[in-house]
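FAQ: What does a multi-protein file look like?

Like this. Sequence, then tokens, then the next protein.
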Amino acid sequence: MPGGRRGPTRQQLSRFSLPSLQTLVGGNVSNGTGLRSSSNSVGLSAPPISTLITPEPVRHSRIPELPLDSSFLFEFLLFLYLLVALFVQYINIYRTVWWYPYSHPAASTSLNFHLMDYHLAIFISVMLARRLVWTIVSEVSQSSGGSLLRYVVLIAARLSLLTMCGWVLCWTLVNLCRNHSVLNLLFLGYPFGVYVPLCCFHQEGGKSQASGSDCEYPADHQPADLVESPFFRPRDFLFLLRENIREQLSSPPHMPTHTCPQHIHSDTPELIRAEVEELKSDFNRRIKEVLFNSLFSAYYVAFLPLCFVKSTQYYDMRWSCEHLIMVWINAFVMLMSQLLPPSYCDLLHRSAAHLGRWQKLEHGSYSNTPQHVWSESTVWPQGVLVRHTRSLYKAVGSYNVALPSDVSHARFYFLFHKPLRILNLLIGIESSVVLYQLYSLLRSERWNHTLSLGLILLCNYYVLFKLLRDRIVLGKAYSYPLSSSSSGLKSQ
């Protein structure tokens, strides 16, 4: 064996090896951050992980105040769009070959007006105007003030408007009952019959599930049902129906607030999780409102007129069904852009950044890496391994207070940790619709298709313009580099 100086043996290397993370962090189990050790020897005591490894502060970008349509303007534009879509559907159903000589009986007008049911058209128009009417009534109620005479006039105007709408609905329903069968009449109230059992009882069940979760609501936001009893109690059906109808007709309530914690306390994780629970409930309520109203609009605009067409009347079924899908998508995008404005999405993004996420690992992986016991009062930094409910998790975010086994927390972080995710999704949907309609317009050979696509495209251009404007402004705002002086830790 050649001569020379021999290197140190394994025993010598083990003596002078670097201290492990277990020695640096310690095994303080009282704070819930103890390490999982493979030996039975007692390790050195050390401060908890929250005092040794400070999580990086979450820095938020400051976005400008983008203009948002008022409730009255948005409801008016939505109602105008739905009327145009209803007119387009009637063109697709009752069109004629109007370029024939006037001696031909079917070519005297461009549409078969004698086949239309005007009572049905009026009934659909009133149903589509329900949000606009309620918005007018709500804004008038909020602005009621001043002299007694003005208050009486406003009350009389509200009662007159609601009475007129109710009288028109009753008048149209009576005439529809005289001229149509019972099966056709059932289609008039089908959305309400589906909404009541699904949404009402689902909301009640959701509240009962929320009572058993680990996160608690603040005292001023705690639901009355959870205060009275932790168990599920069936509520009065009429009261539940009235509350849900009021929720659909009224404008969205005040936007929740977000407070960025400047200093980490023992109750900071619990406050963040409670805030996330409140934001989840508000977001689910808004999504439920968007889905119901978009499907409601598409049903009454594009589907209900098809149910009252006579069996001898011919119409293009494929084009009518395509129009139904387009109306639903456009109404969905319009409602999403109004009920989920950029300021609200930024609020969800800030909360998701403080919540963090955990990645579940397989058993046996990272066996030589220190593993902690998850604690609900600890803010975990990125890359830390914790054990919770016999599973191993790795901290993904820079600020992690989420419950590792809670799927809703992981879903909340996935949706909102990127602030432009929802806006990009809406732009992709609306751009695809516009491109498809332009392609259909170039290939259209019938006059009703050309007119229909031209009218609908005018409405879609306005929606796409607003989305692209917000995307350009927010893209520059979020891409602006954050400095330590403008870390955005101030609460907004």
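And here is the next protein:
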Amino acid sequence: GLVLGIYSTEKDEGAAQFTSAGDAFDRLVSGKLRELLSACGPSLKKGKTRIFHGLHQDFLSVVVVGLGKKNAGVNDQENWNEGKENIRAAVAAGCRQIQDLEIPCVEVDPCGDAQAAAEGAVLGLHEYNDLKQKKKPVVTPQLHGSAESEAWQKGVIYAEGQNLARYLMEAPANYITPIKFAEHIEQKLRSFSNVKVHIRPESWIATQQMGAFLSVAKGSAEPPIFLEIHYLGGANTNDSPLVFVGKGVTFDSGGISLKPSSGMDAMRADMGGAATVCSAIVTAAALNLPLNIIGLAPLCENMPSGKANKPGDVVRAKNGKTIQVDNTDAEGRLLLADALCYAHNFNARAIVNAATLTGAMDVALGSAATGVFTNSSWLWTHLYEASILTGDRVWRMPLFEHYTKQVTDCPLADLSNIGKYSRAGGACTAAAFLKEFVTASHWAHLDIAGVMSNKDEVPYLRKGMAGRPTRTLVEFAARLSQDSHN
């Protein structure tokens, strides 16, 4: 199979404009492709496809995909590079057409941006079907032509990173338990000599005095794990690392503050923070990025039992602060509190944590963008600029003292794990809670609850867990590795 791009033209511009690969193929078949295209209706809209059979013996099926306007660059209203997004969406649509025809291999037109084309192909074909007997046929995308092969390869690595996060999030909670999660990541990193993986057991967590994390884990029969990854890609192993922290609740029932049963199965993806940051480190290692990264993932289940946290219980975090657990379903911030304290041991350049933290984040932004709460404009700028390139957007949210007051005004302890006006500004009060465990001057908290899954909003991702914003984290790390000022 072959996927070729075509740009949309204004009404009066006449002949359709192919990419250079499209033009070359059209010449190869003596103008037949252009002829057939103009014969079959109006010009191709962006993201739409037309399929032609029997044009050439090497490519029995050719899918032409609409790329939208030529030279569409950064759209300031949309905060992303429209050209790149158009390519991702178009290529994904084309590759799926080839998959429907059960053709095992597809060559993809780089469309002027081979990295975006590779991302569209690899992300667009991904589907979790490990546990099904009937699987879709496997299609291997390849670059059409030899130019831009380095950019293509980079796009494949970025996309495979996001697909790893999608896999971990989508897999059932009885398959991805805390220990299985840690082992899966360890296995992915085994081949890299500059990576160390520590799978810390419950006894270690206890000696670290992570009382908040342990209080969540104790309700489940699955033992907790603290996963610690050291990627030493920097010129000097002593260079200050970027520290990623990810919430790893492999199943969140809510605990004694039980969630409603409808849709609870989606809470197998409540380890989305851990999945995206660990996948980003696997990707950074595959790209051999020249910086040091440390990944921290507190992993456990949140379950109701005779041993579980009860509403009103008070627990003590690693830094000595006491927390009143008013709602056992606000558990992610308890794990992160201890992990963030521990993250301060590494003299970090920056600490970035990701978590499917609050339903309130989904209410605020839906699946358009990840909410970023940060105390550092330098860090915000890097994340924001990275997200424009990847199309996996971020949006800055407030870390006002206004919200801190709502979590520190607590009857029995230093902090309450929910804001005193319960539902008002829930994503912001959660961020304000985390801030109480951070002294570093460059810290960002990414609330990814709204981007956890995809229905049909991102056209190049199938329905299911989204693995967002893995590519933005990777691009951010890549930018940081080039920025020596901090």
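Q: Is there any per-entry metadata?
A: Some entries carry free-text notes. For the entry above: The mean pLDDT is 96.
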